[in-house]
Design goal:
Layout lengths: L2 E7 L21 H12 L7 E8 L7 H14 L7 E6 L6 H9 L4 E7 L3 H7 L5 H13 L5 E7 L6 H13 L4 E6 L7 H7 L8 H17 L3 E4 L2 E3 L6 H7 L4 E4 L4 E4 L2 E5 L3 H9 L5 E6 L2 H12 L6 E2 H8 L3 H4 L1 H9 L3 E3 L3 E4 L1 H5 L1 H5 L5
Parallel strand pairs: 1-2, 1-9, 2-3, 3-4, 4-5, 5-6
Antiparallel strand pairs: 6-8, 7-8, 10-11, 11-12, 13-15, 14-15
């Protein structure tokens, strides 16, 4: 069976104020050792067939191009990549030099996910980004010239002080550049972030949930007019340009996670690596798996996760597929919940299945908890 491979690169030049991902600054001296550890961990999965590869972080493109090239070489040596259709990497515009792009192209990368976040210089500065708008434009155009024809651009809305007009300018500018894919994420202020500390100190305005929803609805309508179909709550793509790797997650298909904090799901087991980069490298050096925890994938967890993940997509839940996988009719198992959610206008049912309505998307967490048994 083909699997998806995720590789976590936890290094950053600077920690953005909104970021709560496992990432480190000031540890550039560990990059070579960490890359070596990744190659060793890959050997634990030698020979497995891959459908997609996704390298995220952190900032993968802050590594030296030769290190990245070595990691991709390791993937080809350890895994069967003949059927691999999509190789993605996350990139910060401030780290996309011509040398980097050339190296990525030679390594077989065929999809870039570039974190722009905003078109507004003041918003970029507030977010703590290391790049400006002009740098993004130059590197995006350079990537196009070098033949990258599958590019995603990440955007954030709900930034403190951001207005609907500012958000609309960001969307217009990005759509004019015609990427194949656009991701729009609502800013969530998490405890471990710089924004959380600023909010507690009164240095940021309180988030406005109504404005947040206005921005989201505007994005949905605007991007639809530009040909970008929403296929997941936060993701929009031109026809046929959905992210194949992320679809594997949303369809609960098996994946392998390599690196600190990476998660894996395969053969009915979910497991995750230590998020401590020092411990990760130490365990690998000792010849021990860097796994911090594991749990069996129970039928109950499987059903909930399938509902939670698939309802995020435009395809929603298919009755037949659900019954084939779990041996039960979801219409009988959750009869009361489905009737209540439909009466409240949160889901739309049909002959083949059900999907979230626009109202249901806005209140998605309310919908999801209905299926916790």
């Amino acid at each position: 069976m083909q699997k998806s491979l995720y590789i976590h690169i936890p290094f950053c030049i600077k920690k953005c104020r909104y970021c709560d991902f496992v990432s480190y600054t000031g540890l550039r001296y560990m990059e070579t050792g960490y890359a070596d550890a990744l190659l060793e961990e890959m050997k634990l999965y030698r020979g497995q067939c891959l459908r997609t590869v996704y390298m995220g972080g952190g900032t993968p493109t802050c590594l030296d191009p030769t290190l990245l090239s070595g990691i991709f070489d390791g993937i080809n040596q350890c895994f069967d990549t003949k059927g691999c259709t999509e190789i993605s990497i996350e990139a910060n515009p401030g780290t996309l030099s011509e040398q980097m792009l050339s190296s990525l192209k030679k390594s077989g990368v065929n999809r870039l996910s570039i974190g722009l976040q905003s078109w507004n210089p003041e918003e970029l500065e507030l977010l703590g980004r290391i790049h400006g708008r002009e740098e993004f434009i130059q590197n995006y155009e350079k990537a196009r010239e070098m033949g990258f024809d599958n590019i995603n651009i990440d955007l954030i809305f709900g930034i403190p002080g951001q207005t609907l007009n500012s958000w609309s300018r960001t969307l217009q500018a990005v759509a004019d550049m015609a990427p194949q894919h656009i991701s729009c994420y609502s800013l969530q202020i998490e405890e471990s972030t710089g924004f959380h500390r600023m909010l507690a100190q009164g240095k940021l305005p309180q988030p406005d949930p109504d404005l947040d929803r206005d921005m989201y609805h505007y994005a949905v309508e605007f991007l639809a007019d530009k040909g970008y179909k929403r296929y997941e709550i936060s993701n929009f793509a031109l026809e046929g340009r959905e992210c194949v790797h992320n679809l594997a997650y949303w369809n609960n298909q098996p994946y392998i996670g390599i690196g600190a904090a990476a998660h894996s799901f395969s053969d009915g087991i979910r497991k995750w690596n230590t998020s401590d980069i020092f411990r990760y490298c130490s365990l690998i050096k000792e010849g021990r798996p860097p796994v911090e925890g594991r749990e069996p994938f129970s039928i109950e967890n499987g059903m909930f996760e399938t509902i939670f993940l698939k309802l995020r997509t435009r395809w929603g839940i298919n009755y037949r597929q659900f019954e084939e996988r779990f041996g039960t009719d979801i219409r009988l198992l959750y009869k009361e919940q489905l009737e209540r959610l439909e009466d409240d206008g949160l889901i739309q049912t049909g002959q083949e299945g059900f999907v979230l309505t626009s109202k249901g998307i806005d209140l998605s967490n309310t919908v999801f908890v209905q299926f916790l048994i």
